[in-house]
Design a protein that fits this description.
The protein is α+β, with helices and mostly antiparallel strands. Helix content is 18%, strand content 22%. The chain has a 3-stranded antiparallel sheet with strand order 4-3-5.
Length: 92
């Protein structure tokens, strides 16, 4: 099990994701290529019971939008630096 803190629409929440890790990695791996992930797809987590972790490359090509765009992982150094807040006021 992997515990993540994610920020979504201005809220921070803790999410526990079940992932199989053969090694203890310093970063959360992309579920497609095992490179460090910077994004979390909520549709994968909730609907498909997959880790939902995506690197920049696989996030761009990811088809799921039912729960909105994949959310940035707060524990990614790049996300913390640029202060990404997402698009303002999605038209729901
Ligand atoms: Zn990837
Ligand atoms: Zn997904």
């Amino acid at each position: 099990m992997l515990s993540l803190i994610i920020r979504y629409k201005g809220h921070s929440l803790r999410l526990v994701v079940s992932v199989k890790l053969t090694d203890v990695l310093p970063e959360t791996p992309c579920m497609e290529c095992q490179r460090p992930a910077a994004w979390l797809c909520l549709e994968c987590v909730y609907d498909l019971a997959k880790p939902g972790l995506l690197c920049d490359k696989h996030n761009e090509a990811h088809p799921h939008t039912d729960y909105g765009e994949p959310v940035p992982l707060v524990n990614s150094p790049r996300v913390g630096m640029c202060g990404y807040e997402g698009p303002a006021e999605p038209p729901y």
